[in-house]
Amino acid sequence: AQSVTQPDIHITVSEGASLELRCNYSYGATPYLFWYVQSPGQGLQLLLKYFSGDTLVQGIKGFEAEFKRSQSSFNLRKPSVHWSDAAEYFCAVAHSGAGSYQLTFGKGTKLSVIP
Amino acid sequence: DTEVTQTPKHLVMGMTNKKSLKCEQHMGHRAMYWYKQKAKKPPELMFVYSYEKLSINESVPSRFSPECPNSSLLNLHLHALQPEDSALYLCASSQDSNGNTIYFGEGSWLTVV
Fold first, then answer.
1. Cys-Cys with A31: which of A6, A27, A61, B75 at CB 3.0–4.6 Å?
2. Do B103 and A46 touch (CB under 8 A)?
3. Could you tell me the pLDDT band of residue B1, with boundaries at 50, 70 and 90?
4. For residue B21, what pLDDT is reported?
5. A38 within 8 A of A87, measured Cβ to Cβ
6. What is the three-class DSSP state of B14?
7. How far is B63 from chain A (nearest CA, A)?
8. How far apart are CA B78 and CA B110, in angstroms?
9. Beta bridge partners of B25
10. Mapped to the 3 state alphabet, what secondary structure does A45-102 carry?
């Protein structure tokens, strides 16, 4: 069965520092991978996605992620964090089954930013 | 435009009330979803509609009743809810059920008293 692991529950970084959020997935076929961000009290905003092709994908707000099949990972990075990046980040894998298509989420990583 | 609109943003209801959550998208998407999210947890899938037909019901209690009147609209009818049903309810949509990006709305905060 498909699963997503985000090993870090909470990460704190200083504003201007670099950031890497880890995501590992378990999926039998070629995965469709996503990172979503959720600010407090808000819905989920898509940051970026990987379907195929170039393994380094660029997203919104200066984020990027690298797909590494050999490590079953899809880590999210940002070179310089801004205070407004403080939020909850969810990694997800999309999969088809039972005639439909859905997402399986990791448990999320909460990012705190120190001014 | 990748917008999924949900109303109301906040809803407080008693355990004997009947209410509905509404979701709308005008992106021509043919798959729509309801997710439930409790505090500090990831979203959990409730229902999937594909081409206006219910294709997944994740063993959701019958006090939650989804409806897809047309390809742009998705409703969630609520009746006889329990306080533990208080959560953020997220609607989402994707082009179809065949490997596309799923876009989420801002959610409806439900409090059951």
1. A27
2. yes
3. low
4. 98
5. yes
6. coil
7. 23
8. 10
9. B4
10. EEEEEECCCCCEEECHHHCEEEEEHHHCEEEEEECCCCHHHCEEEEEEEEEEECCEEE
- pLDDT of B2: 63
Residues from chain B contacting residue A43 (CB–CB below 8 Å): 6, 90, 104-107
pLDDT digits (tens, 9 = 90+) for B36-92: 999 989 999 999 998 999 988 888 999 999 999 999 999 999 999 999 999 999 999
Give the sheet arrangement for strand B4-7, strand by strand.
B4-7, B18-25, B73-79, B64-70
Contact A101 B90 (CB under 8 A): no
Residues in chain A: 115
Q: Is the pLDDT of residue B112 over 90?
A: yes
SS3 B83: helix
- Please, is A21 exposed, middle or buried when counting C-beta atoms within 10 Å of its C-beta (0-12, 13-18, 19+)? buried
Point out which residues pair with A28 in neighbouring strands: none
- pLDDT for A16: 97
Using CA atoms of A108, B98, B29, B2 in order, give the dihedral in degrees to the nearest 10.
Answer: 40
Tell me how many degrees the CA angle A70-A46-B87 measures, rounded to the nearest 5. Answer: 110
Q: Which of B50, B102, B106, B111 to mutate to test the interface with A (most CBs of A within 10 A)?
A: B102
